[in-house]
Amino acid sequence: MKDIYILGIESSCDETAAAVVKNGREVLSNVILSQIDTHTIYGGVVPEIASRKHIESIVQVVREALDRAKMQSSELDAVAVTYGPGLVGPLLVGVSYAKAYAYGCGKPLIGVHHIEGHIAANYIEHRELEPPFMCLIVSGGHTHLVNVKDYGEFEILGRTMDDAAGEAYDKVARAIGLGYPGGPKIDAVAGEGDPGAILFPRAHIEGDEYDFSFSGLKSSVLNYLNSCEMRGEKVNTADVAASFQEAVVDVLVENSMKAVDRFKADRFAIAGGVASNSALRSAMEKACGERGVGFYKPSPLLCTDNGAMIACAAYFDHMKGDFAELTLNAIPNLRLGDRS
Amino acid sequence: MNILAIDASGLAASAAVLSDEVIKAEFCVCNKLTHSETLMPMIDQVINASGMSLKEIEAFAVTAGPGSFTGLRIGVATAKGLSEAMEKPLIGVPTVESIAQNMAGFDGIVVPLMDARRGETYTGIYVFKGDELEVLREQCAVPLEEIINDVNDRGQRVVFLGDGVRVFRERIDKICTVPYYYAPADHRLQRAAGVAILAQKYYLEGRFTDAADLVPVYLRKSQAERERDNIRAHADA
Predict the structure, then answer these.
(1) pLDDT grade, residue A180 (50/70/90)?
(2) Cα A139 to Cα A170: distance, rounded to the nearest angstrom
(3) Predicted pLDDT at A209
(4) pLDDT value at residue B211
(5) Is residue A334 included in any domain, yes or no?
(6) Is residue A260, in this structure, part of any structural domain at all?
(7) Which of A38, A40, A41, A55 would best serve as a mutation to test chain B binding (most B beta carbons within 10 A)?
(8) Do A99 and B223 make contact, defined as CB atoms within 8 angstroms?
(9) pTM value?
(10) Lowest mean pLDDT among A91-105, A205-219, A250-264, B64-78
(11) How far is A69 from chain B (nearest CA, A)?
(12) Which of B70, B85, B225 sits opposite A104 (nearest CB)?
Protein backbone atom coordinates (compact mmCIF):
# COMPACT_ATOMS: atom_id res chain seq x y z
CA MET A 1 0.00 0.00 0.00
CA LYS A 2 1.16 3.51 -0.78
CA ASP A 3 2.55 5.48 2.16
CA ILE A 4 0.45 8.44 3.25
CA TYR A 5 2.16 11.64 4.41
CA ILE A 6 0.07 14.25 6.19
CA LEU A 7 1.04 17.73 7.35
CA GLY A 8 -0.77 18.60 10.59
CA ILE A 9 -1.21 22.20 11.74
CA GLU A 10 -2.38 23.18 15.22
CA SER A 11 -3.00 26.71 16.54
CA SER A 12 -6.03 26.41 18.82
CA CYS A 13 -4.47 28.00 21.89
CA ASP A 14 -0.93 29.19 22.63
CA GLU A 15 1.21 26.75 20.67
CA THR A 16 1.95 27.23 16.99
CA ALA A 17 2.67 23.70 15.85
CA ALA A 18 3.16 21.68 12.69
CA ALA A 19 4.24 18.11 11.99
CA VAL A 20 4.55 15.56 9.23
CA VAL A 21 3.28 12.07 10.06
CA LYS A 22 3.63 8.98 7.90
CA ASN A 23 0.74 6.52 7.80
CA GLY A 24 -0.84 8.02 10.91
CA ARG A 25 1.69 6.53 13.31
CA GLU A 26 5.22 7.52 12.36
CA VAL A 27 6.23 11.07 13.29
CA LEU A 28 8.75 12.46 10.81
CA SER A 29 8.81 15.89 12.43
CA ASN A 30 6.96 17.66 15.23
CA VAL A 31 7.68 21.37 15.62
CA ILE A 32 6.07 23.18 18.54
CA LEU A 33 6.56 26.88 19.15
CA SER A 34 5.20 27.70 22.59
CA GLN A 35 4.12 31.23 23.51
CA ILE A 36 4.02 30.41 27.19
CA ASP A 37 6.64 32.97 28.23
CA THR A 38 4.55 35.78 26.76
CA HIS A 39 1.30 34.68 28.38
CA THR A 40 2.94 34.02 31.74
CA ILE A 41 3.27 37.80 32.15
CA TYR A 42 -0.53 38.07 31.98
CA GLY A 43 -1.27 35.06 34.18
CA GLY A 44 -3.00 33.16 31.38
CA VAL A 45 -3.48 32.97 27.65
CA VAL A 46 -4.53 36.30 26.11
CA PRO A 47 -6.41 35.41 22.89
CA GLU A 48 -5.47 38.54 20.92
CA ILE A 49 -1.79 38.22 21.78
CA ALA A 50 -1.89 34.50 20.98
CA SER A 51 -3.43 35.27 17.57
CA ARG A 52 -0.73 37.84 16.84
CA LYS A 53 2.01 35.40 17.75
CA HIS A 54 0.51 32.67 15.55
CA ILE A 55 0.43 34.82 12.43
CA GLU A 56 4.04 35.90 13.00
CA SER A 57 5.35 32.36 13.02
CA ILE A 58 2.99 30.01 11.22
CA VAL A 59 5.00 30.01 7.98
CA GLN A 60 8.28 29.39 9.77
CA VAL A 61 6.84 26.57 11.86
CA VAL A 62 5.33 24.75 8.87
CA ARG A 63 8.57 25.21 6.91
CA GLU A 64 10.58 23.78 9.77
CA ALA A 65 8.24 20.77 9.99
CA LEU A 66 8.73 20.00 6.29
CA ASP A 67 12.50 20.60 6.49
CA ARG A 68 12.95 18.29 9.46
CA ALA A 69 10.86 15.63 7.73
CA LYS A 70 13.00 16.17 4.59
CA MET A 71 9.80 16.57 2.60
CA GLN A 72 8.64 18.83 -0.19
CA SER A 73 5.07 20.09 -0.10
CA SER A 74 4.48 18.23 -3.38
CA GLU A 75 5.13 14.92 -1.59
CA LEU A 76 2.31 15.47 0.92
CA ASP A 77 -0.97 13.60 0.57
CA ALA A 78 -3.04 16.04 2.61
CA VAL A 79 -2.94 19.12 4.82
CA ALA A 80 -4.75 18.80 8.15
CA VAL A 81 -5.65 21.53 10.60
CA THR A 82 -7.39 21.91 13.94
CA TYR A 83 -10.66 23.79 13.37
CA GLY A 84 -12.07 23.58 16.89
CA PRO A 85 -12.63 23.67 19.74
CA GLY A 86 -10.33 26.41 20.98
CA LEU A 87 -9.83 30.18 20.88
CA VAL A 88 -11.40 31.57 17.73
CA GLY A 89 -8.65 34.09 16.85
CA PRO A 90 -5.82 31.58 17.14
CA LEU A 91 -7.85 28.87 15.36
CA LEU A 92 -8.54 31.20 12.41
CA VAL A 93 -4.83 31.72 11.75
CA GLY A 94 -4.20 27.99 11.37
CA VAL A 95 -7.41 27.33 9.45
CA SER A 96 -6.88 30.24 7.01
CA TYR A 97 -3.27 29.31 6.44
CA ALA A 98 -3.96 25.61 5.99
CA LYS A 99 -6.79 26.22 3.53
CA ALA A 100 -4.70 28.52 1.33
CA TYR A 101 -1.62 26.30 1.58
CA ALA A 102 -3.56 23.15 0.70
CA TYR A 103 -5.26 24.95 -2.18
CA GLY A 104 -1.94 26.28 -3.48
CA CYS A 105 -0.30 22.86 -3.24
CA GLY A 106 -3.32 21.18 -4.82
CA LYS A 107 -3.69 18.86 -1.82
CA PRO A 108 -6.84 17.78 0.01
CA LEU A 109 -7.70 19.57 3.25
CA ILE A 110 -8.74 17.78 6.44
CA GLY A 111 -10.37 19.56 9.38
CA VAL A 112 -9.52 17.94 12.71
CA HIS A 113 -11.27 18.17 16.07
CA HIS A 114 -8.70 19.20 18.67
CA ILE A 115 -9.78 16.56 21.20
CA GLU A 116 -9.73 13.86 18.54
CA GLY A 117 -6.15 14.93 18.02
CA HIS A 118 -5.33 14.51 21.70
CA ILE A 119 -6.86 11.03 21.70
CA ALA A 120 -4.91 10.15 18.54
CA ALA A 121 -1.64 11.14 20.25
CA ASN A 122 -1.89 7.72 21.91
CA TYR A 123 -1.73 5.92 18.55
CA ILE A 124 1.67 7.40 17.80
CA GLU A 125 3.61 5.71 20.56
CA HIS A 126 1.35 2.71 21.04
CA ARG A 127 1.07 1.17 17.61
CA GLU A 128 -0.86 -1.78 18.99
CA LEU A 129 -3.59 0.50 20.38
CA GLU A 130 -6.81 0.38 18.40
CA PRO A 131 -10.41 1.25 19.25
CA PRO A 132 -12.46 0.42 21.17
CA PHE A 133 -10.98 1.85 24.37
CA MET A 134 -11.87 4.29 27.11
CA CYS A 135 -10.10 7.67 27.15
CA LEU A 136 -9.87 10.57 29.58
CA ILE A 137 -8.87 13.88 27.99
CA VAL A 138 -7.72 16.50 30.49
CA SER A 139 -6.26 19.88 29.62
CA GLY A 140 -6.51 23.58 30.36
CA GLY A 141 -9.70 23.82 28.32
CA HIS A 142 -11.18 20.32 28.36
CA THR A 143 -12.15 17.48 30.67
CA HIS A 144 -13.84 14.67 28.77
CA LEU A 145 -14.38 11.01 29.52
CA VAL A 146 -14.90 9.35 26.17
CA ASN A 147 -15.71 5.88 24.93
CA VAL A 148 -13.67 5.62 21.72
CA LYS A 149 -15.76 3.18 19.67
CA ASP A 150 -13.86 3.42 16.41
CA TYR A 151 -11.52 5.82 14.62
CA GLY A 152 -13.43 9.11 14.50
CA GLU A 153 -16.37 7.65 16.43
CA PHE A 154 -16.89 8.70 20.01
CA GLU A 155 -19.39 8.54 22.81
CA ILE A 156 -18.93 11.25 25.40
CA LEU A 157 -19.70 9.74 28.81
CA GLY A 158 -18.70 12.63 31.04
CA ARG A 159 -17.49 16.18 30.89
CA THR A 160 -16.87 19.01 33.30
CA MET A 161 -19.86 21.02 34.41
CA ASP A 162 -17.73 24.11 35.09
CA ASP A 163 -13.93 24.52 35.09
CA ALA A 164 -11.68 22.19 33.13
CA ALA A 165 -9.19 20.33 35.33
CA GLY A 166 -6.28 22.37 33.95
CA GLU A 167 -8.20 25.57 34.56
CA ALA A 168 -8.63 24.62 38.23
CA TYR A 169 -4.88 24.00 38.42
CA ASP A 170 -4.21 27.47 36.97
CA LYS A 171 -6.58 29.21 39.39
CA VAL A 172 -5.29 27.41 42.47
CA ALA A 173 -1.66 27.93 41.39
CA ARG A 174 -2.33 31.65 41.11
CA ALA A 175 -3.96 31.71 44.57
CA ILE A 176 -0.98 30.03 46.24
CA GLY A 177 1.48 32.23 44.39
CA LEU A 178 2.94 29.66 42.02
CA GLY A 179 1.85 31.49 38.86
CA TYR A 180 1.08 30.27 35.37
CA PRO A 181 0.93 27.58 34.06
CA GLY A 182 -0.57 25.91 37.10
CA GLY A 183 -0.36 22.23 36.13
CA PRO A 184 3.40 21.70 36.03
CA LYS A 185 4.02 24.16 38.88
CA ILE A 186 1.60 22.46 41.28
CA ASP A 187 2.82 19.03 40.19
CA ALA A 188 6.41 20.02 41.05
CA VAL A 189 5.61 21.51 44.47
CA ALA A 190 3.11 18.75 45.39
CA GLY A 191 5.94 16.23 45.48
CA GLU A 192 7.21 17.89 48.68
CA GLY A 193 3.80 18.11 50.36
CA ASP A 194 1.45 15.77 52.19
CA PRO A 195 -1.58 14.89 50.03
CA GLY A 196 -3.53 13.99 53.16
CA ALA A 197 -2.77 17.24 55.01
CA ILE A 198 -6.02 19.01 54.07
CA LEU A 199 -9.22 17.25 53.08
CA PHE A 200 -10.64 19.09 50.09
CA PRO A 201 -14.04 17.97 48.72
CA ARG A 202 -14.48 15.51 45.85
CA ALA A 203 -17.44 16.67 43.80
CA HIS A 204 -19.90 14.10 42.54
CA ILE A 205 -22.62 15.21 40.16
CA GLU A 206 -25.96 13.76 41.07
CA GLY A 207 -27.45 11.68 38.28
CA ASP A 208 -24.39 12.01 36.07
CA GLU A 209 -21.90 9.57 37.41
CA TYR A 210 -19.23 10.37 34.84
CA ASP A 211 -19.40 14.18 34.89
CA PHE A 212 -16.88 16.36 36.68
CA SER A 213 -16.95 19.61 38.63
CA PHE A 214 -13.89 21.47 39.82
CA SER A 215 -15.18 24.91 40.75
CA GLY A 216 -16.30 23.75 44.22
CA LEU A 217 -12.86 22.31 44.86
CA LYS A 218 -11.25 25.54 43.71
CA SER A 219 -13.50 27.59 46.01
CA SER A 220 -12.73 25.28 48.87
CA VAL A 221 -9.00 25.87 48.38
CA LEU A 222 -9.57 29.63 48.25
CA ASN A 223 -11.68 29.46 51.44
CA TYR A 224 -8.97 27.47 53.16
CA LEU A 225 -6.37 30.07 52.19
CA ASN A 226 -8.63 32.87 53.44
CA SER A 227 -9.32 31.21 56.75
CA CYS A 228 -5.59 30.63 57.29
CA GLU A 229 -4.97 34.28 56.59
CA MET A 230 -7.73 35.36 59.01
CA ARG A 231 -6.25 33.20 61.73
CA GLY A 232 -2.77 34.47 60.91
CA GLU A 233 -1.58 30.94 60.14
CA LYS A 234 1.20 30.34 57.68
CA VAL A 235 0.05 28.33 54.66
CA ASN A 236 2.11 25.30 53.73
CA THR A 237 2.07 25.72 49.94
CA ALA A 238 3.35 22.22 49.26
CA ASP A 239 0.62 20.67 51.42
CA VAL A 240 -2.10 22.73 49.71
CA ALA A 241 -0.75 21.80 46.28
CA ALA A 242 -0.49 18.11 47.17
CA SER A 243 -3.94 17.97 48.80
CA PHE A 244 -5.57 19.83 45.91
CA GLN A 245 -3.88 17.59 43.36
CA GLU A 246 -4.95 14.50 45.27
CA ALA A 247 -8.58 15.69 45.19
CA VAL A 248 -8.45 16.31 41.42
CA VAL A 249 -6.75 13.00 40.70
CA ASP A 250 -9.14 11.06 42.97
CA VAL A 251 -12.18 12.25 41.04
CA LEU A 252 -10.57 11.75 37.63
CA VAL A 253 -9.55 8.20 38.53
CA GLU A 254 -12.83 7.32 40.23
CA ASN A 255 -15.05 8.40 37.32
CA SER A 256 -12.73 6.89 34.75
CA MET A 257 -12.65 3.53 36.51
CA LYS A 258 -16.43 3.56 36.93
CA ALA A 259 -16.67 3.81 33.16
CA VAL A 260 -13.99 1.16 32.63
CA ASP A 261 -15.86 -1.23 34.95
CA ARG A 262 -19.30 -0.48 33.54
CA PHE A 263 -18.29 -0.86 29.89
CA LYS A 264 -15.87 -3.69 30.67
CA ALA A 265 -13.17 -1.80 28.78
CA ASP A 266 -9.88 -3.68 28.57
CA ARG A 267 -7.86 -0.63 27.53
CA PHE A 268 -7.74 2.85 29.01
CA ALA A 269 -5.85 5.89 27.71
CA ILE A 270 -5.24 9.42 28.95
CA ALA A 271 -4.58 12.45 26.78
CA GLY A 272 -4.28 16.24 26.89
CA GLY A 273 -1.94 18.63 28.67
CA VAL A 274 -2.85 17.49 32.20
CA ALA A 275 -2.14 13.89 31.14
CA SER A 276 1.52 14.69 31.64
CA ASN A 277 0.82 15.25 35.35
CA SER A 278 2.92 12.74 37.29
CA ALA A 279 0.37 12.11 40.06
CA LEU A 280 -2.41 11.45 37.54
CA ARG A 281 -0.23 9.12 35.48
CA SER A 282 0.80 7.00 38.44
CA ALA A 283 -2.70 6.89 39.96
CA MET A 284 -4.22 5.80 36.66
CA GLU A 285 -1.49 3.25 36.11
CA LYS A 286 -2.19 1.76 39.53
CA ALA A 287 -5.97 1.71 39.08
CA CYS A 288 -5.68 0.08 35.66
CA GLY A 289 -3.10 -2.39 36.95
CA GLU A 290 -5.45 -3.53 39.73
CA ARG A 291 -8.09 -4.32 37.12
CA GLY A 292 -5.80 -5.91 34.58
CA VAL A 293 -6.71 -3.13 32.15
CA GLY A 294 -4.11 -1.97 29.63
CA PHE A 295 -3.02 1.61 30.38
CA TYR A 296 -1.84 3.97 27.64
CA LYS A 297 -0.36 7.43 27.94
CA PRO A 298 1.42 9.68 25.45
CA SER A 299 4.88 10.94 26.36
CA PRO A 300 4.69 14.45 27.85
CA LEU A 301 5.65 16.14 24.57
CA LEU A 302 2.70 14.53 22.79
CA CYS A 303 0.34 15.49 25.64
CA THR A 304 0.81 19.18 24.85
CA ASP A 305 -0.86 20.71 21.81
CA ASN A 306 1.09 19.55 18.77
CA GLY A 307 0.76 19.02 15.05
CA ALA A 308 1.63 15.31 15.08
CA MET A 309 -1.57 14.39 16.89
CA ILE A 310 -3.57 16.41 14.34
CA ALA A 311 -1.86 14.69 11.40
CA CYS A 312 -2.39 11.34 13.09
CA ALA A 313 -6.14 11.92 13.63
CA ALA A 314 -6.41 13.19 10.05
CA TYR A 315 -4.93 9.97 8.70
CA PHE A 316 -8.07 8.07 9.65
CA ASP A 317 -10.23 10.72 7.95
CA HIS A 318 -8.01 10.38 4.90
CA MET A 319 -8.61 6.63 4.86
CA LYS A 320 -12.34 7.29 4.84
CA GLY A 321 -12.06 10.03 2.20
CA ASP A 322 -13.44 12.53 4.68
CA PHE A 323 -12.12 15.86 3.36
CA ALA A 324 -13.01 19.48 4.14
CA GLU A 325 -14.24 22.17 1.76
CA LEU A 326 -12.63 25.59 1.21
CA THR A 327 -15.47 27.01 3.32
CA LEU A 328 -14.01 25.31 6.43
CA ASN A 329 -14.38 27.70 9.34
CA ALA A 330 -12.98 27.82 12.87
CA ILE A 331 -15.57 26.58 15.36
CA PRO A 332 -14.54 27.56 18.89
CA ASN A 333 -17.14 25.36 20.64
CA LEU A 334 -17.04 22.40 18.26
CA ARG A 335 -18.40 19.28 19.95
CA LEU A 336 -16.59 15.98 19.78
CA GLY A 337 -18.13 13.76 17.10
CA ASP A 338 -19.69 16.73 15.26
CA ARG A 339 -18.67 17.16 11.65
CA SER A 340 -19.21 20.36 9.76
CA MET B 1 2.73 40.85 -14.54
CA ASN B 2 -0.07 38.89 -12.85
CA ILE B 3 -1.11 39.66 -9.30
CA LEU B 4 -3.77 38.09 -7.09
CA ALA B 5 -4.87 40.61 -4.45
CA ILE B 6 -7.14 39.96 -1.48
CA ASP B 7 -8.71 42.07 1.23
CA ALA B 8 -10.44 40.97 4.41
CA SER B 9 -9.60 43.97 6.57
CA GLY B 10 -13.11 45.38 6.85
CA LEU B 11 -16.77 44.47 6.48
CA ALA B 12 -16.49 43.35 2.86
CA ALA B 13 -14.10 40.73 1.57
CA SER B 14 -12.72 40.88 -1.96
CA ALA B 15 -10.31 39.23 -4.35
CA ALA B 16 -9.03 40.40 -7.74
CA VAL B 17 -6.66 39.30 -10.47
CA LEU B 18 -4.65 42.03 -12.15
CA SER B 19 -2.77 41.29 -15.35
CA ASP B 20 -0.60 44.28 -16.32
CA GLU B 21 -3.21 46.99 -16.89
CA VAL B 22 -6.26 44.76 -16.92
CA ILE B 23 -8.38 43.70 -13.95
CA LYS B 24 -9.17 40.22 -15.26
CA ALA B 25 -11.65 39.48 -12.51
CA GLU B 26 -12.80 40.96 -9.25
CA PHE B 27 -15.11 39.57 -6.63
CA CYS B 28 -16.48 41.50 -3.66
CA VAL B 29 -18.82 40.21 -1.00
CA CYS B 30 -20.40 42.00 1.92
CA ASN B 31 -22.85 39.57 3.49
CA LYS B 32 -23.42 37.88 6.80
CA LEU B 33 -20.98 35.06 6.21
CA THR B 34 -17.58 35.34 7.85
CA HIS B 35 -14.48 36.13 5.81
CA SER B 36 -13.16 32.77 6.89
CA GLU B 37 -15.97 31.05 4.98
CA THR B 38 -16.08 33.33 1.93
CA LEU B 39 -12.49 34.25 1.16
CA MET B 40 -11.01 30.99 -0.14
CA PRO B 41 -13.99 30.00 -2.32
CA MET B 42 -13.92 33.58 -3.64
CA ILE B 43 -10.23 33.28 -4.52
CA ASP B 44 -10.95 30.02 -6.31
CA GLN B 45 -13.75 31.66 -8.28
CA VAL B 46 -11.80 34.78 -9.17
CA ILE B 47 -8.89 32.68 -10.45
CA ASN B 48 -11.26 30.58 -12.55
CA ALA B 49 -13.07 33.66 -13.84
CA SER B 50 -9.78 35.33 -14.81
CA GLY B 51 -9.08 32.48 -17.21
CA MET B 52 -5.68 32.00 -15.62
CA SER B 53 -4.27 29.29 -13.45
CA LEU B 54 -2.85 29.86 -9.99
CA LYS B 55 0.58 28.94 -11.37
CA GLU B 56 0.54 32.02 -13.60
CA ILE B 57 0.20 34.38 -10.63
CA GLU B 58 3.57 36.04 -10.06
CA ALA B 59 2.88 37.73 -6.73
CA PHE B 60 0.23 37.74 -4.03
CA ALA B 61 -0.98 40.94 -2.38
CA VAL B 62 -3.04 41.60 0.73
CA THR B 63 -4.17 44.56 2.80
CA ALA B 64 -1.82 44.21 5.76
CA GLY B 65 -3.58 46.65 8.08
CA PRO B 66 -4.96 48.46 9.79
CA GLY B 67 -8.42 46.96 10.07
CA SER B 68 -10.37 44.39 12.02
CA PHE B 69 -7.72 42.39 13.88
CA THR B 70 -9.35 39.07 13.05
CA GLY B 71 -10.13 40.05 9.45
CA LEU B 72 -6.54 41.13 8.86
CA ARG B 73 -5.24 37.83 10.10
CA ILE B 74 -7.64 35.85 7.91
CA GLY B 75 -6.42 37.85 4.90
CA VAL B 76 -2.75 37.75 5.80
CA ALA B 77 -2.76 34.05 6.76
CA THR B 78 -4.49 33.23 3.47
CA ALA B 79 -2.03 35.32 1.46
CA LYS B 80 0.89 33.72 3.30
CA GLY B 81 -0.46 30.25 2.56
CA LEU B 82 -0.79 30.98 -1.15
CA SER B 83 2.58 32.72 -1.38
CA GLU B 84 4.36 29.90 0.46
CA ALA B 85 2.69 27.12 -1.51
CA MET B 86 3.32 28.78 -4.88
CA GLU B 87 6.78 30.07 -3.87
CA LYS B 88 5.92 33.57 -5.06
CA PRO B 89 6.55 36.91 -3.30
CA LEU B 90 4.05 38.55 -1.01
CA ILE B 91 3.15 42.23 -1.01
CA GLY B 92 1.58 43.81 2.05
CA VAL B 93 -0.37 46.95 1.14
CA PRO B 94 -1.29 49.49 3.84
CA THR B 95 -5.10 49.38 4.08
CA VAL B 96 -5.62 53.13 4.29
CA GLU B 97 -3.46 53.67 1.20
CA SER B 98 -5.50 51.10 -0.71
CA ILE B 99 -8.70 53.00 0.13
CA ALA B 100 -7.14 56.28 -1.06
CA GLN B 101 -6.29 54.56 -4.35
CA ASN B 102 -10.05 54.49 -5.12
CA MET B 103 -9.87 58.28 -5.71
CA ALA B 104 -6.96 58.21 -8.18
CA GLY B 105 -6.89 61.46 -10.17
CA PHE B 106 -8.85 63.47 -7.60
CA ASP B 107 -7.80 67.12 -7.52
CA GLY B 108 -7.33 67.76 -3.82
CA ILE B 109 -6.38 65.71 -0.80
CA VAL B 110 -7.77 62.26 -0.14
CA VAL B 111 -8.56 61.28 3.46
CA PRO B 112 -9.79 57.74 4.13
CA LEU B 113 -11.52 57.30 7.49
CA MET B 114 -11.87 53.79 8.85
CA ASP B 115 -13.98 53.24 11.95
CA ALA B 116 -11.38 52.21 14.55
CA ARG B 117 -13.91 52.20 17.45
CA ARG B 118 -13.06 53.72 20.82
CA GLY B 119 -13.49 57.22 19.36
CA GLU B 120 -10.67 56.86 16.87
CA THR B 121 -10.21 56.47 13.15
CA TYR B 122 -7.56 54.74 11.09
CA THR B 123 -6.69 57.44 8.63
CA GLY B 124 -3.97 59.15 6.60
CA ILE B 125 -3.64 62.00 4.09
CA TYR B 126 -2.87 61.41 0.42
CA VAL B 127 -2.62 63.36 -2.81
CA PHE B 128 -2.40 62.28 -6.44
CA LYS B 129 0.34 63.59 -8.69
CA GLY B 130 -1.22 62.46 -11.94
CA ASP B 131 -2.16 58.88 -11.18
CA GLU B 132 0.65 58.46 -8.63
CA LEU B 133 -0.39 58.23 -5.00
CA GLU B 134 1.73 60.35 -2.68
CA VAL B 135 1.60 60.03 1.09
CA LEU B 136 1.25 63.36 2.95
CA ARG B 137 0.51 61.75 6.30
CA GLU B 138 1.25 58.08 6.98
CA GLN B 139 -1.63 55.89 8.11
CA CYS B 140 -2.30 56.25 11.82
CA ALA B 141 -4.93 55.74 14.54
CA VAL B 142 -6.09 59.12 15.89
CA PRO B 143 -9.25 60.81 17.20
CA LEU B 144 -11.39 62.24 14.39
CA GLU B 145 -10.80 65.83 15.57
CA GLU B 146 -7.05 65.46 15.17
CA ILE B 147 -7.21 64.47 11.51
CA ILE B 148 -9.89 67.07 10.67
CA ASN B 149 -7.73 69.80 12.28
CA ASP B 150 -4.84 68.65 10.10
CA VAL B 151 -7.11 68.73 7.02
CA ASN B 152 -8.38 72.22 7.93
CA ASP B 153 -4.80 73.49 8.34
CA ARG B 154 -3.89 72.31 4.84
CA GLY B 155 -6.63 74.51 3.38
CA GLN B 156 -7.25 72.28 0.35
CA ARG B 157 -10.42 70.64 -0.93
CA VAL B 158 -10.76 67.14 0.43
CA VAL B 159 -12.62 63.94 -0.25
CA PHE B 160 -13.50 61.65 2.65
CA LEU B 161 -14.10 57.96 2.16
CA GLY B 162 -13.91 54.66 4.01
CA ASP B 163 -16.37 52.89 6.31
CA GLY B 164 -15.84 55.68 8.86
CA VAL B 165 -17.83 58.15 6.76
CA ARG B 166 -21.07 56.61 7.97
CA VAL B 167 -19.93 56.91 11.59
CA PHE B 168 -18.29 60.34 11.51
CA ARG B 169 -20.37 62.23 8.95
CA GLU B 170 -22.32 64.39 11.43
CA ARG B 171 -19.19 65.48 13.28
CA ILE B 172 -17.31 66.17 10.05
CA ASP B 173 -20.19 68.39 8.90
CA LYS B 174 -19.76 70.40 12.10
CA ILE B 175 -15.99 70.82 12.24
CA CYS B 176 -14.61 70.65 8.69
CA THR B 177 -13.87 74.19 7.41
CA VAL B 178 -12.47 73.41 3.95
CA PRO B 179 -14.56 72.34 0.91
CA TYR B 180 -15.19 68.62 1.28
CA TYR B 181 -16.91 65.72 -0.49
CA TYR B 182 -17.87 62.18 0.42
CA ALA B 183 -16.94 59.51 -2.08
CA PRO B 184 -19.90 57.54 -3.43
CA ALA B 185 -20.53 53.98 -2.25
CA ASP B 186 -18.74 52.34 -5.19
CA HIS B 187 -15.53 54.19 -4.32
CA ARG B 188 -15.85 54.17 -0.59
CA LEU B 189 -14.45 50.90 0.75
CA GLN B 190 -11.18 49.05 0.37
CA ARG B 191 -11.32 46.56 -2.48
CA ALA B 192 -8.95 44.09 -3.98
CA ALA B 193 -8.63 45.77 -7.40
CA GLY B 194 -7.14 48.90 -5.79
CA VAL B 195 -4.91 46.73 -3.64
CA ALA B 196 -3.64 45.01 -6.79
CA ILE B 197 -2.84 48.33 -8.52
CA LEU B 198 -0.77 49.53 -5.56
CA ALA B 199 0.81 46.11 -5.17
CA GLN B 200 2.06 46.21 -8.74
CA LYS B 201 3.71 49.56 -8.05
CA TYR B 202 5.22 48.26 -4.80
CA TYR B 203 6.50 45.19 -6.56
CA LEU B 204 8.32 47.24 -9.17
CA GLU B 205 9.84 49.30 -6.34
CA GLY B 206 11.08 46.10 -4.71
CA ARG B 207 8.71 46.41 -1.77
CA PHE B 208 7.75 42.75 -1.38
CA THR B 209 8.58 40.09 1.17
CA ASP B 210 8.91 36.40 1.70
CA ALA B 211 5.74 34.70 3.02
CA ALA B 212 7.34 34.31 6.46
CA ASP B 213 8.18 37.98 6.93
CA LEU B 214 4.86 39.76 6.45
CA VAL B 215 3.14 40.74 9.71
CA PRO B 216 -0.13 42.64 10.01
CA VAL B 217 0.09 46.32 10.92
CA TYR B 218 -2.50 46.76 13.66
CA LEU B 219 -1.60 50.36 14.62
CA ARG B 220 -2.86 49.39 18.04
CA LYS B 221 -1.80 47.18 20.90
CA SER B 222 -4.03 44.43 22.25
CA GLN B 223 -6.31 45.37 25.13
CA ALA B 224 -4.28 43.27 27.56
CA GLU B 225 -1.10 45.11 26.59
CA ARG B 226 -2.79 48.51 26.90
CA GLU B 227 -4.12 47.67 30.36
CA ARG B 228 -0.71 46.45 31.42
CA ASP B 229 0.90 49.65 30.11
CA ASN B 230 -1.64 51.70 32.09
CA ILE B 231 -0.96 49.83 35.29
CA ARG B 232 2.78 50.28 34.86
CA ALA B 233 2.39 53.96 33.98
CA HIS B 234 0.39 54.50 37.17
CA ALA B 235 2.93 52.56 39.17
CA ASP B 236 5.71 54.75 37.80
CA ALA B 237 3.81 57.98 38.49
Answers:
(1) confident
(2) 11
(3) 86
(4) 97
(5) no
(6) yes
(7) A55
(8) no
(9) 0.95
(10) A205-219
(11) 17
(12) B85
Q: What is the pLDDT of residues B28-70, one digit of tens each?
A: 998 878 999 999 999 999 999 999 999 999 999 999 999 999 9
Amino acid (one-letter) located at A201: P
- CB contact at 8 A, A174 and A227: no
Helix axis angle for B144-154 and B164-175, nearest 10°, is 60
Look at A101 and B212 and tell me if their CB atoms are within 8 Å.
Answer: no
For residues A211 and A309, membership in a common domain is answered with: no
Judged by a CB distance cut-off of 8 A, whether residue A60 touches chain B is yes
* CATH code for the domain of A175: 3.30.420.40
From the list B41, B85, B222, the residue facing A105 with the nearest CB is B85
Interchain pair A92, B43: CB under 8 A: no
- E strands, B95-199, are 109-115, 120-129, 132-143, 158-161, 180-182
Contact between B73 and A60 using a beta-carbon 8 Å cutoff: no
Same domain, A273 and A141: yes
Q: Does any CB of chain A come closer than 8 Å to the CB of residue B223? A: yes
User: Is A227 found in the same domain as A86?
Assistant: no
Q: Which of A109-113, A150-154, B28-32, B212-216 has the lowest mean pLDDT?
A: B28-32
Range of A46's domain?
A: 5-120+302-320
| A100 to B69: CB separation less than 8 angstroms, yes or no | no
Any A CB within 8 A of B148 CB: no
Judgement on whether residues A59 and A135 belong to the same structural domain of the protein: no
Contact present, A146 and A156 (Cβ < 8 Å): yes
Q: What is the pLDDT of residue B236?
A: 76
Closest Cα in chain B, distance from residue A255 (Å): 38
- The answer for residues whose C-beta is within 8 angstroms of residue B89's C-beta and 6 or more apart is B58, B59, B60, B83, B203, B208, B209, B210
Calculate the CA B131 to chain-centre distance.
18
Give CA A13 to chain center in angstroms. 11
For chain A, counts of helices (H) and of strands (E): 11, 10
Residues A58, A197: one domain?
no
Q: Which residues of chain A lie closer than 8 angstroms to B82, CB-CB? A: 100-101, 103-104
- Between residues A41 and B209, the one the model is more confident about: B209
A285-302, pLDDT tens digit by residue?
999 999 999 999 999 999
- CA-nearest of A145, A148, A144 to A164 is A144
- Give me the number of domains chain A comprises: 2
B195 and chain A in contact, CB less than 8 A: no
**Are residues A12 and A81 both part of a single domain?**
yes
Instruction: Give chain A positions within 8 Å (CB) of B39.
Output: 96
Q: What is the pLDDT of residue A2?
A: 92
* Structural domains of chain B sorted by starting position, each given as residue range(s) with its CATH number in brackets: 2-96+190-223 (3.30.420.40), 102-188 (3.30.420.40)
* B141-185 tens-digit pLDDT: 999 999 999 999 999 999 999 999 999 999 999 999 999 999 998
Report if residue A20 sits inside a domain: yes
Which residue of A31, A59, A180 is the best one to mutate when testing the B interface, meaning the one whose CB has the most B CBs within 10 A?
Answer: A59
Q: Is the ipTM of this complex over 0.90?
A: yes
